[in-house]
Amino acid sequence: MSKLNGKIAIVTGGNSGIGYASAKELKSEGAIVVITGRNPEKVEKAAQELGVKGIVADVESISAIEDLVEQVKTEFGKVDVLFVNAGIFQAAPIGQISEEMFDHQMGINFKGAFFTTEKFLPILNDGASIINLSSINAYTGMPNTAVYAASKAALNSYTRTAATELAPRKIRVNSVNPGPVSTPIYGKTGMEEEQLNGFAEAMQNRIPLKRFGQPEDIAKLVSFLASDDASFITGSEYNIDGGININPLVG
Ligand SMILES: NC(=O)c1ccc[n+]([C@@H]2O[C@H](COP(=O)([O-])OP(=O)(O)OC[C@H]3O[C@@H](n4cnc5c(N)ncnc54)[C@H](OP(=O)(O)O)[C@@H]3O)[C@@H](O)[C@H]2O)c1
C-alpha cells in the first residue's frame, strides 16, 4: 500500500521547482494533492501536467490565504499534509536593502508561511504533518542574503514553537533545509546569467558531494516527513545539502 493513501496534501508554490516535484511525489504515494501559486497560467499548466487541483493564492495576501482555505474546505474538507513551500530569493548587500525588498521577501518567506499554517489550522486533521521549506541559509553568513537568511531562520524558530503547541493534537511540524537545488528560483532573482553561472560554479565546488540537489531529492524527504513513517518526528530540522553545511576547511 502507498504510504499516503487517501491523505489530502496542500503544496504552496507547487507550480515549480521543489513544490512541483513534491506534489508529484506525494501524489505517487497516494495523496490527493492541491498545488497553489501566484500566477494563474503557471498554476493551471502545472496542475494539468501533474493531474492535481490547482488554486491561485498569493501568500503575501492574508485574504488570499483565507480564500484558499475556504476553497479547500469546501472541496476537500480536512487536510493531512501542509507543505509550506512558496518562497523567493532576492540577493542584496547590506547597505543597499530597501524597505520594500525587506517587506516583500519577509512577507512571502516568513509572514506568508506563518499565516499559511495559522489559517489552515482549523481544517487540519489531528495527526497532520506540516513541513516548512526553509534553507541552510538560516545558518550561514552567505553574503547578500541578510533578509533571505533571516526569513528562513525565523521560519525554523516558528517550526519549534509550533511543534510544541500543536503536539497535543499530534500535529507534527518540521523544517527542511536544502542547500543549493537546481530550480528556476535563481533565474527569478534578476541576476545576470554570467553572475548566476559564477555563483553556481563556486557553490558546486564547495559542496562535498560536488553537485547541486535536484528537486526530487527534496521531494523524497518531504514525502517521508508527511507520512506516518515519521510519526515520532516533530520540531526537527533536516539539512539536505550534499554536505555543504559541514563547511570543511580543506575539501
Ligand atoms: N532552489 C534552492 O536552491 C533552494 C534552497 C533552499 C531553499 N529553497 C526554498 O525552496 C522553496 C521552493 O523554491 P524553489 O527553489 O523550488 O523555487 P521556484 O522554482 O521558484 O518555486 C517557488 C514556488 O513558490 C511560488 N511563489 C513565490 N512567491 C509566491 C507567493 N507570493 N505566493 C504563492 N506562491 C509563490 C513560485 O511561483 P512563481 O512560479 O510564480 O514564481 C513557485 O511556484 C522556497 O521557499 C525557497 O526559498 C530553495
Task: Detail the topology: elements first, then pairings.
Elements (H helix, E strand, L loop, with lengths): L7 E4 L5 H12 L3 E6 L2 H11 L2 E4 L5 H15 L2 E6 L14 H22 L3 E10 L12 H21 L5 E7 L14 H14 L8 H12 L10 E4 L11
Parallel strand pairs: 1-2, 1-4, 2-3, 4-5, 5-6, 6-7
Bound molecules: NADP nicotinamide-adenine-dinucleotide phosphate.
NADP nicotinamide-adenine-dinucleotide phosphate (NAP) binds next to helix 1, strand 2 and helix 4.
CATH architecture: 3-Layer(aba) Sandwich
Gyration radius, rounded: 17 Å
Helicity range: 40-55%
List each distinct ligand once. Answer: NADP nicotinamide-adenine-dinucleotide phosphate
Kindly report the spatial arrangement of strands forming the biggest sheet: 3-2-1-4-5-6-7
Q: If helices are DSSP runs of H or I spanning 4 or more residues, what is the number of helices?
A: 7
Main sheet summary: 7 strands, parallel
Name the CATH homologous superfamily.
NAD(P)-binding Rossmann-like Domain
Summarize this structure briefly:
With 251 residues, this protein is α/β, with parallel strands linked by helices.
